[in-house]
Every structure is written in C-alpha cells, then in structure tokens.
C-alpha cells in the first residue's frame, strides 16, 4: 500500500517532484515509474480547481517497491546495449582468438569502454574454451561479471543479425566486430559500416590473410588486431569509429566508367553501347 | 611398308600442326576483340562456384548482373556442395524479384503513357516466367576432396574433367559464351575442358554444329574471365598462377592495385560489393 510519511506535500506542488522518490521508514526507496498514465492526475500548479485527494487512494501508476540494492542493479542494466561480436568463421577453428577474447585484460578493456555484451561465434572447438571460462569465471572481478557473455557454434543463415546487433541497430549504441581475417566476414562488417578488428590466424600455413589485414588497416578500413594485445585494438577501434572510410572504395583503377566486372563482361561478350 | 623417314616426317608435321593449333586457340597468344553483339541477343554465361568462400565472393561480384543481357546462367558446383547450390538458387531468386519489380514499374509507366492495357497479360506473364527460370545448376565430381591426398587426386581430377567435358558438350543451351570463375579447383578442370573443346572445334562434331544451337556465329566461344580473390593482396593464388601461366584465360582481373603494379592482371577497383 502506498503510504506517505513525513511532512505533507503542499497540494499545489507539482506531483512529479513528489513522486520521484519518497523515503520509506524502512529505508527503502519507493519509486514511481513515470508512465504516460500519470498525465491524468497531473495538476496545474496554479489551477483554480480544488485538487482531488489523490493520496488517500494511492497513485494510479505502478510503484516499484523493490529494495535499494535491486534497484541499483537494474539501473546498471538499463544502460544502453553495446555489443562486441567475435567471429572465428566456419572453416578453420581459431581457439586462440576465443581464448584471447575471454582473457581478463580484454574483458576489463571492454568494461572500461562501456560494453554490455560479448557475443562469440566460436565454432565447433571453441565451445570447450567457453565452458572452461564459465567454470573459472567466479574468480573474475565484480566489474567484469557485469558483462553478459554468450556464444554459439555457427549460424548457417549467416551472421547478419549479430553484425547488426554490434552495429547497434534496434536498441543500443555501436559496438565492434572482432573477426578472423576471412574475406567474407570482413566484407559483411564493412558493408554495414561497423568498426572491425581483424585478427589473422597465425596457425594458417599460406598466410595471405595477414597481408589482407595489413593492407586494409593501412587504407583505414579496419584495425589490424594482434592476439597478444586485443585491449589495444579495442582502444584503436574507438578512434576508427570516427575515421572509418566508407565501403566500397571509390577508386576504380584505370577504368573511367567504373563499371567493374560487368564492364569487362560486356566487353568480352561484345556488347557495345 | 613406309620408310622410317616418312613416319618421322609425318609425325613432325602432325606435331607442328597440333602446336600451331594450340597457339591459335590459346587466349594468351591470340588476343582478339569479340565481334559486336546486338542487345537482347540470347547469351549463355557459365559461373563456376567453389567452396564457401569462393561462392560467397562470386555472388557478391555478380550483384549488378543484368539478367536482360545475360539471359541464361549456368552454375557449376562440386558434388555434395549443397551450400553453394543453395546460395546460387537464392541469388537467382533475388534476380527474379529485381526483374519483376523493374517490369512492374515499366508496365505502369507504359500504361500511363498509352492509357490502355496493352497486350501483356497472361501471355506476357508466361513468357516472363520462362525467362525467369533461365538458369540451371550442375554438379560435377570434385577435383579434389577437402582432405584428399595428392596420390589419389589424378583419377578424381580425370573424372571431374570428363564430367566437365560432358557438361559443356551436352548442355541444352550449347556452349557458354563466357566462363566466369574466381579460382576453385573445380574451375581449373572446367577451364581445361573448355580449352580442349576449343582445340577440337575444327571438327564438325565438336565445333560449328554445336555452336549454332542459338543460330549465332559468334556464340559459344567460351571466353574465360578469371577474377582473383579479394583476399589476395600481394601474391596471386595458386589456381590463378596456373591459369595465367598456361594462358587459359582471356582476362584476369585483380582487386588490389599492388597486384597490378607487379604486372599481374588488370585492376578495375574493388569488385566485390
């Protein structure tokens, strides 16, 4: 039940102030959620009408009776979602990236940059790494435990929805995508213009992926991440957010028409316009 | 009984002729502009899809493909590669949807211009339905399984080559005008098959009779465009090197300027979208 203790509120005072927080005797904060319904009982401060005796029957809006400590937690949850999405691709396993993404240093770096979610596409073998992390995660500091960590094997429908979540579409702010150096994943991220950290897999034999990551970083499309120092990459990605070049690049080489492949195909077919 | 000199001489002449023929048909020695072709002429484009990465990149290369110009598309996938086949089907569905939209717009514009309903109706719909189904997906045995050793590779390559020859020879639309590939192992074999058919095209069984399926003198030339993967920044891929060194393709496109600077292919901007 709603009970008002303490000095009575002046009847002409705006209700909004009175209802924000009222201290109960038990030390709980009684909080009224601000809802549109409230407008029904808002009185004009200088209204000539006699105010209705609202406090006898209690407020017509829902009241949050939860104790202070629960409220403080929910307040933290309410901060806007910021997702860091890690993908290792479908073809080769890349456990070292999953491990690096679950390292305490990296999680703390995420926390300092206001990330709320860490989502992992870990592939078949990465499952074990994540489970191991879950078992040992009680040693983590309280700050890091606030981060919600989830993982999945692989989505055959593509990773578009995760990428969009990292972009912050729906509810939330723009996060980051940490990708292996596979061209498909990098392109997916570049197309929706979310900051990308590309981490080449050092175990792969013919490492042309390293070259791709380097070149893209030089041209200012991605951050070239390093397994040993992912927190630094997170810092760099915050500055990339402001300077990232739009995709696709405008440079078309020695092709003034800019038609690209279709132009060459038309030439070879003999289509002349 | 012919003398040894006679046998030697005839073999030499045969070899020389065979060699000259090879030089004549290989695109690397014989750069020719294709004869001009009128708009709306039926054409046949063959697209070789490889494993996951190759397929995804190929389809993103083709986003601006105009189905009104490339009226028939054949897709070749390795057997058991349902992923690529599904992707190709999805791509074709996208093309059909795009076409339909454009047609509706055109139709509406036409109605406005003429003020009456034209002869498009059930008949037109049917025609378009036929056009929209203008693609086929073919499977050939894989040239090399993913974990196959090189010892067992030649027989499977030969089987793949045979399937490629049969596919090209018996294709209901005749020989393709253009073969587009970005370098999976299957494409090497298919291009080899196309070259063999090109080599023997002076035979009536192989050449003109088959080429004139669509009543076009210039049709069925099987020109080859090779697009180097976007992931290749500084060094061309192995299949790219083989195709170029053997002189099997008419055009080589690269997607990084660095490759062109090394004298490898033409750079026309980044082609993936």
Oligomeric state of the chains in view: heterodimer
The helix/strand order of chain A is HEEHEHEHHEHHEHEHEHEHH
Major sheet details of chain A: 6 strands, parallel
Apparent shape of chain B: globular
Across the major sheet of chain A, the strand order is 6-5-4-7-8-9
User: Termini separation of chain B (Å)?
Assistant: 67 Å
How far apart are the termini of chain A?
A: 81 Å
* Structural class assignment of chain A: alpha/beta
Provide the gyration radius of chain B in Å.
22 Å
Unreliable stretches of chain A (pLDDT < 50, length at least 5) are: 13-45, 52-56
Region (Disordered) (chain B): 93-119
Subunit structure (chain B): Heterodimer with ALG13 to form a functional enzyme.
Transmembrane segments (chain B): 6-29
GO molecular function (chain B): N-acetylglucosaminyldiphosphodolichol N-acetylglucosaminyltransferase activity
Give the key terms.
heterodimer; A: 273 residues; alpha/beta; 6-stranded parallel beta sheet; 12 helices; 38% helix; 14% strand; globular; B: 273 residues; 7-stranded parallel beta sheet; 46% helix
Short overview:
The complex is a heterodimer of chains A (273) and B (273). With 273 residues, chain A is an alpha/beta fold. Chain A is built from twelve helices and nine strands.
What does this protein structure show overall?
The complex is a heterodimer of chains A (273) and B (273). Chain A is an alpha/beta fold. Helix content of chain A is 38%, strand content 14%. Chain A has twelve helices and nine strands. In chain A, the strands form two sheets. In chain A, strands 6-5-4-7-8-9 form a six-stranded parallel sheet, with helices on both faces. In chain A, strands 1-2-3 form a three-stranded antiparallel sheet. In chain A, a hairpin with a 5-residue loop joins strand 1 and strand 2. In chain A, helix 5 (104-112) packs parallel to helix 11 (230-243). Chain B has helices spanning 4-25, 52-61, 82-114, 122-132, 153-170, 185-199, 208-211, 238-245, 257-261, and strands at residues 44-48, 72-78, 135-140, 178-181, 223-227, 251-254, 266-267. In chain B, helix 2 packs parallel to helix 3 (82-114). Chain B contains nine helices and seven strands, in the order αβαβααβαβααβαβαβ. Helices cover 46% and strands 12% of the residues of chain B. The interface between A and B is large, with 36 and 51 residues.
């Amino acid at each position: 039940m709603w009970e008002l203790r303490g000095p009575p509120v002046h009847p002409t005072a705006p209700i909004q102030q009175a209802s924000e927080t009222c201290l109960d005797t038990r030390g709980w904060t009684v909080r009224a959620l601000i809802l549109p319904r409230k407008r029904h009982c808002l009185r004009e401060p200088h209204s000539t009408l006699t105010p209705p005796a609202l406090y006898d029957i209690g407020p017509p809006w829902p009241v949050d009776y939860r104790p202070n400590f629960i409220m403080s937690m929910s307040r933290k949850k309410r901060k806007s979602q910021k997702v860091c999405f890690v993908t290792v691709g479908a073809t080769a396993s890349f456990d070292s990236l999953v491990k690096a993404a679950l390292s305490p240093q990296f999680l703390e770096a995420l926390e300092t940059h206001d990330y709320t979610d860490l989502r992992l596409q870990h592939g078949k073998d990465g499952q074990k790494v994540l489970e191991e992390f879950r078992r040992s995660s009680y040693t983590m500091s309280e700050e890091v435990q606030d981060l919600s960590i989830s993982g999945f094997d692989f989505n055959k429908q593509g990773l578009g929805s995760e990428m969009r979540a990292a972009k912050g579409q729906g509810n939330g702010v723009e996060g980051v995508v940490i990708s292996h150096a596979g061209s498909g994943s990098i392109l997916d991220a570049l197309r929706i213009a979310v900051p990308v950290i590309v981490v080449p897999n050092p175990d792969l034999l013919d490492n042309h992926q390293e070259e791709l990551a380097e070149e893209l970083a030089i041209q200012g499309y991605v951050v070239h991440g390093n397994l040993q120092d992912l927190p630094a990459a997170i810092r760099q990605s915050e500055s990339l957010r402001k300077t990232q070049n739009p995709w696709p690049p405008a440079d078309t080489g020695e092709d003034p028409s800019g038609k690209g492949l279709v132009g060459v195909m038309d030439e070879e077919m003999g289509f002349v316009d | 009984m012919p003398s040894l000199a006679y046998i030697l001489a005839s073999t030499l002449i045969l070899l020389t002729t065979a060699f000259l023929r090879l030089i004549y048909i290989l695109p690397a020695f014989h750069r020719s502009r294709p004869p001009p072709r009128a708009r709306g002429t039926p054409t046949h484009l063959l697209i070789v899809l490889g494993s996951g990465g190759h397929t995804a990149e190929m389809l993103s290369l083709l986003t601006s493909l105009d189905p009104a110009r490339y009226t028939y598309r054949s897709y070749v996938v390795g057997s058991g590669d349902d992923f690529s086949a599904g992707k190709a089907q999805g791509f074709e569905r996208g093309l059909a949807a795009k076409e339909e939209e454009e047609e509706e717009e055109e139709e509406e514009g036409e109605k406005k211009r003429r003020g009456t309903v034209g002869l498009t109706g059930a008949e037109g719909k049917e025609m378009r339905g036929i056009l929209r189904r203008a693609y086929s997906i073919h499977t050939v045995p894989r040239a090399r399984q993913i974990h196959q050793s090189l010892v067992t590779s030649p027989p499977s390559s030969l089987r793949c080559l045979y399937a490629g020859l049969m596919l090209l020879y018996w294709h209901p639309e005749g020989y393709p005008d253009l073969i587009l590939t970005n370098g999976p192992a299957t494409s090497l074999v298919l291009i080899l098959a196309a070259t063999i058919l090109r080599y023997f095209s002076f035979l009536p069984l192989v050449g003109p009779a088959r080429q004139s399926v669509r009543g076009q003198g210039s049709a069925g030339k099987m020109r080859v465009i090779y697009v180097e993967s976007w992931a290749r920044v500084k060094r061309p891929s192995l299949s790219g090197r083989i195709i170029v060194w053997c002189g099997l393709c008419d055009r080589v496109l690269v997607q990084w300027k660095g490759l062109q600077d090394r004298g490898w292919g033409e750079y026309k901007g980044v082609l993936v979208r």
